[in-house]
Amino acid sequence: MVPSLTQDHISASQGKGRWSQQKTRSPKSPTPAKPTEPCTPSKSRSLGPEEASESPTARQIPPEARRLIVNKNAGETLLQRAARLGYKDVVLYCLQKDSEDVNHRDNAGYTALHEACSRGWTDILNILLEHGANVNCSAQDGTRPVHDAVVNDNLETIWLLLSYGADPTLATYSGQTAMKLASSDTMKRFLRDHLSDLQGRAEGDPGVSWDFYSSSVLEKKDGFACDLLHNPPGSSEQGEDVEEDDFMFELSDKPLLPCYNLQVSVSRGPCNWFLFTDVLKRLKLSSRIFQARFPHLEITTLPKAEFHRQVASSQLLTPAERPGGMEDRSPPGSSETVELVRYEPELLRLLGSEVEFQPWNS
Asked: Helix 122-130 vs helix 155-163: angle between axes, to the nearest 10 degrees?
């Protein structure tokens, strides 16, 4: 599980420095004062595709590129200096001029990716990664970009690195892991949850499932350089003929049966179910005849107390819409169960309903 991020979680990292451990770099010339042109170091935001696709001939040499002082004695390049100071236009210019420069190391083994992570320039970090920067590149002391991001306490930066495959279990040559370097409770909790997801969770762990409070298509995309739900596992194999993020409407000339979004097993996520008794009553069939005619439709049972617990916490059903006449009056430890039949298109047709999909942005 990757925890949801809020503005309170994302640290404003521009004012923070590098990890206090000494890095064996050669002395560098003093950092020049930033120019006062309109093109100042950009704040964290996602890079638009039209910006990344401009040709080198279409992009003129930024004026800052002529003014930045590069310490060539330390093996530094213009790309590294621009990534450290936050000049996105210069970074784009350098990459379009020589894309192989993206993984250049200075005399201490640091790359432009290290520089962007240590200063929290998420938009520059995104550009470097899109141009093939090595997300797990190591300096001479074993420092990786993920270590700089954790020390800088920038949750958005570490989020982006992990989305590109950064390994949070790698340690420096002195034995410092990302978890050991984390200082804030928010960063520690984020890394702990991420490592738990990688290593697997035990059944009954409350973190085995995610909590969603609304649809991702209805929320703003600002503030994050990557969309966690853009391409979830399995989406390319299932439902390719159905538009992503479509709303589904069930149409019927009869009152719709109540449908419940329930998790019937810890090994599978929540899905939609009908009460088996409601379906049998609508179809005027007995349980034996229904199962004989439709053996492929999934039927399961759920403890009655658990059913009422999940229904009571539903955000979709108001108290008036919850199943009437089914108050949970069973004594503690009761073995009473509720039979459920899974929500399927075939079952909807049997119930006399039609299904239509409507794009959310139409």
From this structure: 10
Q: In 10 A of CB 192, how many CB atoms?
A: 14
Is residue 46 very low, low, confident or very high in pLDDT (cuts 50, 70, 90)?
Answer: very low
Q: List b or e across 147-173, with b for residues whose CB sees 16 or more CB atoms inside 10 angstroms.
A: bbbbbbbbbbbbbbbbbbebebeeebe
Apex 300 CA angle, 298 and 301, nearest 5? 165
CA distance 316 to 313: 9
- The pLDDT, as a whole number, for residue 128 is 92
**Domains of the chain, start order:** 49-201 (1.25.40.20), 246-359 (3.10.260.40)
Cβ atoms 225, 44 nearer than 8 A? yes
Sheet holding 299-303, edge to edge: 259-262, 271-275, 337-342, 299-303
Residue 12 to residue 43: CA distance in whole angstroms: 10
Give tens-digit pLDDT for 77-112: 888 888 889 888 889 888 888 777 788 988 999 999
Query: What is the C-alpha to C-alpha distance for residues 125 and 88, in angstroms, rounded to an integer?
Result: 10
Residues 6+ apart with CB under 8 A from 291: 299
